[in-house]
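Same chain as my last thread, 204 residues:
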Amino acid sequence: MLFVVSGTIVAASKFYVPENVYSQYAKKYGSQAEIRLNALIDLMDSLADATDDKKVIEVNKFFNQVQYQTDIKTWGQSDYWASRLEFLGVGAGDCEDYAVSKFLTLLQLGVPQEKLFLTYVKWRDISHMVVTYYKEPNTVPFVLDNYDKSIQPATKRTDLAPVYSFTANDLFLQKQQGLGKRVDPSQSKNLNKLKAIDLEIMKR
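reply #2:
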């Protein structure tokens, strides 16, 4: 992986991990994991005042460096949603881990929540998760994916069949243009999974 970091996390950083959490992380995962986490903090600091488009491009690029690996192989479970520190700690994860890490990081960087959704799709009849980014309301979203690492409009991703989108508060039957039909959020167990993930990275 090509993570680049200028140095350790310092007090002047806008984003940080509490000292006790960082210490436990470093002890558990080792020096390479520290490099990955420090690189993310550096990136977030550098993007604090960037445009939304720039934030989307760079965050997508950063997390797509992480190795893909199934939950069974990584965690011994069929469906485990890792936090960002777990994802960077082990240096591997599945599609939900990429999508959730990108989604939470972009929200912390100030990209408005109404522009970002976690979206379940079918990819070659396989369940898959991506982030969809709406530059403007009721337009075709752009897709942030770990399979196809380029960011493209959903209409260009003919390999993906959208199923539904959600944030921590909403659930929509998904269409390529607009948000689709709003449905009862309680229909998705994944909302609780998202809410249960510890942010771990703080903002001053």
